[in-house]
Amino acid sequence: MPDRKKRDFERLTPRQRECLRMVYDRLVSKEIAEKLGISSNTVDTYLTEAIAILGARNRRHAAALFHEYEAGQTTPRKFELESSRVVEPLVFETQEGRGAQILGSLDLLPLRNKGNNGNDLNANHRIFWSAQLGVALAIGFGMLVVGLEVVSRLLGPQ
To answer: pTM, whole model, 2 decimals?
Structure first.
């Protein structure tokens, strides 16, 4: 593990470490606060500071990084939903050419994730999602018109 990353983990306070362990165990701020005898706002503050120190995307990512650090592994396990792997994930080359980047199905959606550095869409993605939104609205409006036509024929004079 690089020295810089190791120093980041060593900068965590004991309370931040406790909170990260409990987040890894899937506890929410209120449950952590009850166990530690502090307020949930204090827990959120500890976790926010830990996220900043570790450079994580969110509290779950920080907890996973810290868990892997404590386990002594050099490469952290990606914290994600289980997949049936019916469809293989898409593989794209990174811009730096350092190898392939594997994207899950949710990574292609224009969803905003709090604390995630990769939230901004590039111009191509903006055009693609604008077109998709336009198509979806046109289909929805068309279905509404057809539905109203069917209802008016059913309820109209015969």
So the answer is: 0.46
